[in-house]
Design goal:
Elements: H1 7-17, H2 22-29, H3 33-47, H4 52-65
Helix pairs in contact: 1-3, 1-4, 2-3, 3-4
Length: 66
């Protein structure tokens, strides 16, 4: 099953998985922090995750199964 996430959202999850804060992620991607925070909120909704850490776990598990 393909990921419901956009490449941008997948990139954000990858950086979050490596321990980067939303502020750090925004700086690295050259966008405003609110853009990253909005993307994180969308990711959490799409994956039905409690928080960002849970979203990372869900995404990693789904990638291992595909």
């Amino acid at each position: 099953m393909p990921s419901p996430l956009t490449p941008f959202e997948t990139q954000i999850l990858g950086l979050a998985a490596r321990g980067h804060s939303p502020r750090d992620i925004a700086h690295q991607l050259g966008v405003e922090e609110r853009v990253v925070r909005n993307a994180i909120a969308r990711i959490r909704r799409l994956l039905s995750a409690r928080d960002l850490h849970h979203a990372v776990q869900i995404h990693q598990t789904s990638q291992e199964q595909s």
